[in-house]
Amino acid sequence: MGVPPWAIRRFLVDPLFVPLAAALALIGVAVAALGLLGAPVDRRLRVPRAALLVAIYLTAEAVLIVAMFGLWLARPALGGRWEAAHLWLLRRTLAVLVASARRLVGLRLEVTEPPAGTVDAGSGPVLVLSRHAGPGDSFVLIHLLLNRYHRIPRVVLINRLQLDPAIDILLGRLGACFLRNDGSDDHAAARIGELARGLGAGEALVIFPEGANFTPSRRRRLIARLRARGQWDRAAVAEDLDAVLPPRPAGVLAALATGRIAATMIVAHAGLDEFSAPGEVWRALPFVAPLMVRWWWVPAAEIPGPERARRQWLTMHWAVVNAWIGAQRAVGNGVDGGGAGAVAVAAVADASQPSEGDPPSPTGPVNPVV
After folding, report:
1. What DSSP element (H or E) covers 130?
2. Residue 267, SS3?
3. What are the DSSP calls for 52-112, one per residue?
4. CA distances from 260 to 36, 77, 142, 247, 295 (A)
5. For the segment 107-158, what is each residue's pLDDT rounded down to a tens digit?
6. DSSP secondary-structure letter at 13?
7. What's the rounded Cα separation, in Å, for the pair 82 and 72?
């Protein structure tokens, strides 16, 4: 689906979306009330839970659009507070949405961080590389960056998200980079590099290197496409990574090449990632499993310099992310997951080995999975 031009989005879509979102939010509240009548049949109260959460999200969208229109009118008076006002809106909106998801659908976060004393980039810019899967993972990631780690996110997103007016306006004003993910944008890496060069103190460049939300069917289609193109090495890596898609290195390499990155956060999560279809999410409500987040910290000094070595470094870290996810799933299923994770890392490591004369590749992440 194509994205309409800026003028159509601002002067046609946005004014129509606000009353539509408000009306749908009221309908959501009514559906939630009616859903309570079905409690004897649906004791998990999925209808009222989902309807109320949708109503809250639509209300937040409408409020954001109106508030940002007000900020646009007041921009001359705001001066240097323009960005701070939008960051406050984003921070408060995400806090409300996460709190609502916690109360209504049982969202619980369990965050595992590197050992104390191993994370120190001062206020230098940070590159955040996160896997992408399951419902709401990107919202939770930006919420954590803002409200837990006090980093200003500069996000790389798929351009279709510009069809969401609140995301389009708010993240656009905060320097987000909206890109096509079908490989047709020849300037995508250059735009990411430009965004990285402009990073300031306390900021984080957020990239989802997989380029799309992971699903088993998307992984199978990707493997088939890679084989059809004769990209046997990449197809082999994709086959070994059963919980993530192989990372696309171009944007990551462009960001690192600027020399602005003080450290890299590599983010994995598990628990809700297996719910890839709306029906699966619906049947899982309210969530029983927590959303487990695990991240690793790599100082810039520990990231290799040559481009080929950086590609291998990224692939190795993504193999560890894959192994960690497999371990969490195995623990949840009550089986020993150590073997599968070790095999996946070893297989990808073997596929990523440099030939003789190439610069050495790191053997694992800074904070390996224990």
Report:
1. strand 126-130
2. strand
3. HHHHHHHHHHHHHHHHHHHHHHTHHHHGGGHHHHHHHHHHHHHHHHHHHHHHHH---EEEE
4. 53, 32, 21, 21, 21
5. 999 999 988 777 876 779 999 999 999 889 999 999 999 999 999 999 999 9
6. I
7. 9
Handedness of CA 195, 200, 204, 209 (dihedral sign): positive
pTM, full prediction: 0.88
HSE on the CB side for 130, CA within 13 Å? 27
pLDDT surpassing 70 at residue 365: no
Q: What is the 3-state secondary structure of 272-301?
A: CCCCCCHHHHHHHCCCCCCEEEEEEEEEHH
Tokens of 20: 């539509």
Give the Cα separation of 235 and 284 in Å (integer): 32
Cβ atoms of residues 205 and 253 within 8 Å: no
Tokens of 305: 């310099």
Per-residue pLDDT at 293 exceeds 50: yes
Nearest CA to 68 out of 24, 23, 18, 19 is that of 18
Q: Which two tokens stand for residue 219?
A: 């992984």
User: 3-class DSSP state for residue 3?
Assistant: coil
Cis peptide before 286 (omega within 30 of 0): yes
d(Cα 151, Cα 142) in Å, to the nearest integer? 9
